[in-house]
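Protocol check, entry for the methods section draft. Step 1: assemble the input record (protein sequence plus ligand SMILES). Step 2: submit for complex structure prediction. Step 3: store the structure tokens unaltered in the notebook. Ligand used here: flavin-adenine dinucleotide. Step 1 record:
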Amino acid sequence: MTMRGAEIAALLGPHVRGRVEAGASLAEFTWFRVGGPADCLLVPQDEDDLAAALAVLPVEVPVTVLGLASNTLVRDGGVPGLVIRLIRGFSQAQTFEDGTVTAGTGMADARFARVCADAGIGGFSFFRGIPGSLGGALRMNAGAHGGETKDNFVSARAVTRNGQIVTLTAAQMGFHYRHTDAPLDLIFTSVTFKGTPGVDPLVLKAQMDEVSTYRETHQPTKDRTGGSTFKNPDPPGTPNQRSAWKHVDAAGCRGLVIGDAIVSEKHCNFLINRGSATAADIERLGETVRARVRAVTGVDLDWEIKRIGRFAEGAEVSPFTDYA
Ligand SMILES: Cc1cc2nc3c(=O)[nH]c(=O)nc-3n(C[C@H](O)[C@H](O)[C@H](O)COP(=O)(O)OP(=O)(O)OC[C@H]3O[C@@H](n4cnc5c(N)ncnc54)[C@H](O)[C@@H]3O)c2cc1C
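Step 3, stored output:
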């Protein structure tokens, strides 16, 4: 039997120290600023709190973890089961002289880059340009400017669906282009990297400034967006790599509009909520782009953005369908 949000909240309440709320709104946490509520939201205080909640939660209740939701589209009908956000209690970092850094996965990537730069630890300046959390970076193997999350990775701690705390090596994480093979029900709680010690902080600051300037020039960083919508059809390093945006452009989709959602004129692999778009507008725009790219270039683009939750009634979206 499906548990309602209020029932999940009543069950978890006595076992957790953090915040539990049935029917909590999610839209304001997401970069797109769209989507329905969580059946139940949990903001645990720390790793033990998270583990305690998962240990008592019946296995049939679906669990979704969100970082800063910079790569996620929450559908209009809301998210079933328990949604977990790791923020305070998961946002501290510790640096060591040999270049080792351990950080909570609720820490923003950009802040992590600054912490490493202040400590003179190199290898993390690319994180300055990625607007997610370290948890999202681990799940997505986030990367930019020639760097990827996997590069200096040592290990990660995670909580399993039944509340066990485990540690994963790089081999167990199985990093690929914008993807990890680690079981989907693992919630990463902290990560350890080993960077290059003894780098002049001013050099690292200059690298971060370069990343910021590049971003502001080439991407709609101030808009309501989810970053790169589609994965590049060829992984990095492929000779004559075909970027997703080139296919979108070839199919004539730059500036395409559905409802209040638009394909960015500045970077056409970005979809933007101009203000009052629904999640369905955004997803229909993405499927329309996929349909047109398939028709024009013969390539099937895969979504990089995670789409989660239920469609609103009567607002379902079908793959590879032209809605324009
Ligand atoms: C303007 C803009 C620019 C961007 N540029 C880049 C870029 O250059 N390179 C790049 O790689 N990405 C980029 N992105 C996409 C996004 O920022 C990254 O994918 C980021 O790593 C997502 O982190 P998040 O915390 O926002 O994850 P979310 O969107 O919250 O979640 C993404 C996925 O990670 C999972 N997840 C989140 N936290 C955890 C956790 N603790 N444990 C387990 N799973 C978890 C979620 O369940 C979901 O499946 C960009 C996005 C925007 C809006």
